[in-house]
Amino acid sequence: MGEQTKKYLIATACNQKYENFLISDWLKSLKENVDLKGIDILVMDYGLSAEACNILRKEGVIVRKAEQISGLVNNTRFIELSEFLKSNPQYEQVILCDSGDIIFQSDISMLFEIESEKIRAVCEAISPNMDILVNDKVIENVTNIKNFLRGKKLINVGLAFYPTIVFLEMCRNIFSLLKDPNVWGAETILINYFAYKNGFYELDQKYNFIPTTSTLKYMIKDGKFYLSNGDIIPVVHNAGGKKMWRAIDDFGYGYGHNRPRPMVVFFLRTFYKSLSLFRKFLRMFEKP
Question: Which residue, 156, 205, 220, 250, is most buried by CB atoms nearer than 10 A?
Answer without folding.
Answer: 156
